[in-house]
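Design request, tokens follow.
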């Protein structure tokens, strides 16, 4: 289901602590903030596809939701299933082990990263559309087409001559081709152009309501970011200000991650 270099990246803990500090912490806080506003209120049945070790499933379960994780790695499934209130199953986003119209919402907060072919991404969207109930919501996360370019300067990756070809490839066709497991950069992935997601979701039979810039350009603040996130007042201000501009189209390409919020055609839900 996953190529060897992608599986190796996650099994060696490539993402285990990423959302706990710095850029990753900003990504988590902003994603969580959006989820609390677009998901149905608890108790709702949520399918967390590609939910890994349950970084979102755990808090969602604590908030009163019924959360089931589907992930392609047995190690992730075992860790997610150990969380209170969370169940987990081995599976593929393109063929979900769930009945038609069986959940209130579907999260795709990772699968679209690693489906380089458009047909596979549409298949994942289509499966989400199949299992969500009429009026239900589907939330997907994607990586920006330009994220590796910006990250290369923030983290000085360009000092390694091997990094530039990865960036040029991603800009050219969206595919970040990192097949060398010895490199510390993000593994092989697909980086979306901001204008792509709506078409993929629509082809799967969903109606896109919103495209949201997760971090906006704030993830580029570098050493200043941990200082901001260490202050509750500064963090609250950051979240408040980002809510005001999260739908601004001109910020989408500057954000490291994007969220797409879609509903089944019968939905009348806000968001």
């Amino acid at each position: 289901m996953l190529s060897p270099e992608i599986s190796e990246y996650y099994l060696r803990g490539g993402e285990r602590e990423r959302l706990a500090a710095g850029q990753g912490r900003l990504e988590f806080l902003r994603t969580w903030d959006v989820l609390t506003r677009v998901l149905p209120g608890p108790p709702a049945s949520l399918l967390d596809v590609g939910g890994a070790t349950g970084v979102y499933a755990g808090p969602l379960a604590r908030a009163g939701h019924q959360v089931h994780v589907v992930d392609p790695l047995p190690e992730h499934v075992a860790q997610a299933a150990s969380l209170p209130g969370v169940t987990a199953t081995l599976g593929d986003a393109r063929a979900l082990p769930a009945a038609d119209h069986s959940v209130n919402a579907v999260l795709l907060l990772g699968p679209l990263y690693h489906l380089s072919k458009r047909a596979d991404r549409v298949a994942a969207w289509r499966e989400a559309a199949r299992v969500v109930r009429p009026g239900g919501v589907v939330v997907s996360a994607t990586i920006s087409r330009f994220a590796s370019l910006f990250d290369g300067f923030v983290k000085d990756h360009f000092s390694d001559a091997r990094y530039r070809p990865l960036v040029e490839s991603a800009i050219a066709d969206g595919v970040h081709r990192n097949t060398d497991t010895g490199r510390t950069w993000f593994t092989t992935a697909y980086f979306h152009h901001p204008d792509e997601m709506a078409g993929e979701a629509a082809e799967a039979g969903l109606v896109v309501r919103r495209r949201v810039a997760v971090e906006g350009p704030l993830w580029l603040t570098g050493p200043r970011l941990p200082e901001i996130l260490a202050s509750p007042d500064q963090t609250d201000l950051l979240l408040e200000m980002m809510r005001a501009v999260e739908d601004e189209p001109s910020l989408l390409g500057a954000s490291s991650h994007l969220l797409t919020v879609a509903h089944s055609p019968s939905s009348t839900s806000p968001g």
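Comment from the thread starter after seeing the answer: thanks! The first strand starts at residue 45 and ends at 49.
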